[in-house]
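My hope is that you will study the record closing this message with an eye to the fold:
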Amino acid sequence: MALRYENYLRMNHIPHMWCPGCGIGIVVKSMLAAFEDAGWDKNDTAVISGIGCTSRAPGYLDMNTLHTTHGRALTFATGVKFARPDKNVLVISGDGDASAIGGNHFIHACRRNIDMTLIVNNNNIYGMTGGQYSPTTPLGAKAATTPWGNVDPGFDLAELAKGSGATYVARGHVGSGVQLQRLIRGGIEHHGFSVIEVMSNCHTQFGRRNKLADPVDLITHINKSSVNVARAKKMSPEELEGKFLIGLLHHDKEKAEYTDAYAGVIERAQAGLKK
C-alpha cells in the first residue's frame, strides 16, 4: 500500500525548504512509512528536533512536534517521555546537532536507555549554517572551515552509540530507502534507546567542495562506500578500508529501560512513605 502522505504532513506548509536532491526527504519518507507499518497513531506520537536542515522536518509533520534549541532535542524528548511514558517519542537530528553541541546529551541518552528513537541524518557537514566541518567530516575532506582539508578524526556515530549504552543501533543510507524503512521500524518497535544513523547527501555544502556536486553522484558514492554487515563478515580488513557498515549493528533486549526502572524507584519511595 502506498504511503498516504496527507495523513502525516501539514500540506499547507508544503513545498519544503530543502535543496532539490537533498537526502532528508528520503529519510523523512522512510520514517513516515515506518510509522505506518508499525501502526503508530500520530496523535500518540511526538517528533522532536534541534536546529539545522534536518531539524526543520517536524515543521512539516501533522503530529505532536517540538522544534527546540541547537543540540538539545534529546533533553526535551527525555522530558516528554518522562511525562508521558505511554507515548511514542522520536528525535530527528543532523550529525552536527547530534554529535557536536548535542554530543553530551547523545551519550547520556544512550547510557540511560530511555525508550525513544534518534534518527541522525549524517551528511558529514553543517548544511544550514554555512558548510562548516562537523564531528563526522571525513579526514581530508573540505568544508568552509577546512578549505585545505579536515585533520580532525571523525566519530563513528554507531560505535559511539553502542559504546555509550544504546540498545538498538543501526545504520542505513539514502540510496536504499526500503532497508532504511525496515531499520527505522526496528528501532521504533524496540523497547529502549534506539539510534539509526543515516548516511546522507548534502551536495550543496559537502558535495560541491569535494567534487561531488551532483546529488546522484554523491548518493552513488555513498552507496559504493557501504557494505552490508553480513557481507562484511566475509571480507578482509583491506577490503573494508574506506567502507562503512550498514544494517542492524547492535540489539540488546536485556538492559533495563529507563522509565521502567524509574517507575520502580517511585513505587519504592511511595511504599516507604506509607510505613
Q: What stands out?
A: The two ends are 57 Å apart (CA to CA). The mean pLDDT is 95. The CA atoms of residues 151 and 264 lie 47 Å apart.
